[in-house]
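Note to self: keep these together.
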Amino acid sequence: MTQEKSQLHIDFEREAIPHMDSLYNYAFRMTGDSDDANDLIQETYLKAFRFFNNFEKGTNCKAWLFRIMKNTYINAYQKSKREPEKLDYEEVENFYENAKPSSTDDAHLEKEIFDNLLDDEVSGAISSLPEDFRTVIILSDIEGFTYEEIADFIDSPVGTVRSRLHRARKMLFAKLYKYAGSKGYINKE
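Structure:
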């Protein structure tokens, strides 16, 4: 039994741990709070390890982990909805919007690098998108997922992913047009 757990642990570390940064970045974008993102990541990895024997080796572990995280986030939201006197949707959304790493020096460095990657104006524009559109923009343009992986993650057809991504990009274009001009990305003729 010890040998099995040991091998399971080794396999889990090899397959799942390398995706922690991507998961954290997405959790931070969803939650907006570093503590909440860390809690969401911790819960995701606990569930993933608990059910790792159900993971089909050779398939996309990153997509599997993202699905676990999405379901965990949704379950937390639904639980908060059942207990409206404790939390309302805006509080949950704000709670998850403010997540950022703070537990280790590496996490702090990663946060600084990630925060500097996107200007406040761009981050604000992405955060202001409706959740369905924000999700596909982050997964596609920031995390680099394929349309098929995103479709699996959000449980929608690929056509829906393409449509949402197109609309999300149009919304961002409108929100960031003046900003892009001020940064010299648009010629003012």
